[in-house]
Amino acid sequence: MGAPVTPVPVAEAAPATEKPKRARTKAVAVETTEPKPARKVRATKKAAAGTETIAASQTIVPQEKRAVYHDVSRFSEFDIYLFKEGRHFTLYEKMGAHCTEHAGQKGTYFAVWAPNAELVTVIGDFNHWNRESHSLKVREDGSGIWEGFIPDLTGGELYKYHIKSNYHLYHVEKSDPFAFAREKPPQTASRICDLKYEWQDHEWLERRKTIAGQAQPMSVYEVHLGSWRRRPEDNNRPLTYHELAEELPAYVKEMGFTHVEFMPVMHHPFMGSWGYQITGYFAAASVYGSPQELMHLIDVLHQHGIGVILDWVPSHFPSDEHGLAYFDGTHLYEHADPRKGYHPDWNSYIFNYGRNEVRSFLISNALFWLDKYHVDGLRVDAVASMLYLDYSRKEGEWIPNENGGRENLEAISLIKDFNQAVHEKYPDVQTIAEESTAWPAVTGKVNDGGLGFNMKWMMGWMHDTLDYFSKDPIYRKHHQGEITFSIIYAFSERFMLPLSHDEVVHGKGSLIRKMPGDEWQQFANLRALYSYMYAHPGTKLLFMGGELAQSTEWNHDSSLDWHLLQYKYHSGMQHMLQQLNKLYQQEPALYELSFDSNGFEWIDFQDAHNSVISFLRKGNDPKDDILVVCNFTPIVHQHYRLGVPAGGEWVQLFNSDDEQYGGSNVQNQESLQATEEPSHGRSYSLTLQLPPLAVVYFKLKS
């Protein structure tokens, strides 16, 4: 999780006086009042001239136009049953604002969940924000859903819900939790819109189905849309979705990345949260453009052969008054007890994972982005904070579960249901956990007791590796275990190796500034780090700017330092990452068995004196095996002997010290002959020249 602890601007969040404050030790928990037995309403949909017609419980006859029609619904009895059971995963087709037709009139149907409300009205620019003129009606089935049809609203109008609670004389204006679009911050209204778009990515989706389940290289470029590139000539504004579609896909393809991962594109009121404090879970961030323009960006990426992963944040949400918090005068989306419902790290609320309607909301949201935006994967943020009741809490600040343990059983159940729902509907989509603990079987199958993710971020590798590389090479011989330890657990999960945005913020500095030594050594170290990363088992993720050797810490309010590419060390780094991506996709040994211990074999991990490690990456075919040798000191090693699995000619595939990357160009001959001289427990060996602070790949000539 990368969201900084930043207070929400006053213009964005003015908490109501009745809302529980952080300092309070108790909170009022109000149960939903059950209304009278349900009156059965049957709903059907018909296509008519590009709109939907919703049938009421009786035959529609021409009638006088009213402010709000209450004899209309998108919900069937079965929908309500699923909603209450926490099993309705397409709520976005029912809740929110939907342009449709009723009683021969075009307009918009509204539905909002507010079970503890006394009155709900729709206010907006269409009625001059009048709190009295357009009231919704609560369903008589105990669902707590208020609904109604307002004629003449056909798209583009701004609106909110004015909610008067049954409790504490509380009333508030709320954005629509299911709105597809929002105003640009600091304004907070929802906007009526549809999600119609003519997709052109059919070939991509068919290919995605075809290769599902097969071993594939996965090299991810993590992007914050607001700071990848900016327009300095236009008040330094971020690029729009449309402008990004013109520049980002071509760049990512040229660099050889297989996927992009977008930091949250869901609507968030404060740019400084980087998208991790979401108020509009179903709305694309309006600061960059419309929903259709985001679809266009994803569409163009797919047409360039690039997959799209979105960061998804089911762990917490902000306290902005217009958002989900204290929605109907009660703790509706968040847990009422602050020991389970308030997040001390991020000054935000935690979803009530035990409430079925909230589970329907969250899983519907996940499927929404896969359905309507054709997304190829979801990276779930801050999973560890969901799994543990005592996460970032001291003794006495958390409540044990029913078994007396620290595990959040309700959150665990939600995560499993989420993964099962995603993989049942979209078996060719990836789910990735940002999980920083030793929780078992994060990528295990749900039916076998696992959480069901496809991959997990390898946070231990990231911390140990960066700690090792930050040390002066003269001391690395005392820390050999830090660079080799990851292999002990590398195949316990299906891991992705992340060098994410979290490593270049909060005073940590850029990756290049973590490296010791003079300028040449810093760049050599960083080249070695990337080359070692691409050789290590697991898929790869690199935050934008890493390929430039960005010299300053990432700032969400400015562009990457593209001007650095005029300097040879920076352009050399970019070129090397491009070549590593190419090699990674070309060589099966680097990806075929990434999650299988049969894909890795040590040659020597004990040469701590020279800070050298060597290993084989192996594919399904032995002829694809690659020998990787890492020299983590600035000393050139002449006549360095290594055992190899076979005799014959070995050729150098890659050398991070190559002069085209900014290196010193210490090279081996074009091919090396393995001789029958035993070494490292093998019958054959090679004599190598190891370049300084460098990683070299070799392969047996076929």
TrEMBL record:
Residues 1-35 are annotated as: Disordered. It is an enzyme of class 2 (transferase). This is 1,4-alpha-glucan branching enzyme GlgB. Residues 1-17 have a biased composition (Low complexity). It catalyses: Transfers a segment of a (1->4)-alpha-D-glucan chain to a primary hydroxy group in a similar glucan chain. Monomer. PANTHER family: 1,4-ALPHA-GLUCAN-BRANCHING ENZYME (PTHR43651). GO terms for molecular function: 1,4-alpha-glucan branching enzyme activity. It holds the Pfam family Alpha-amylase_C.
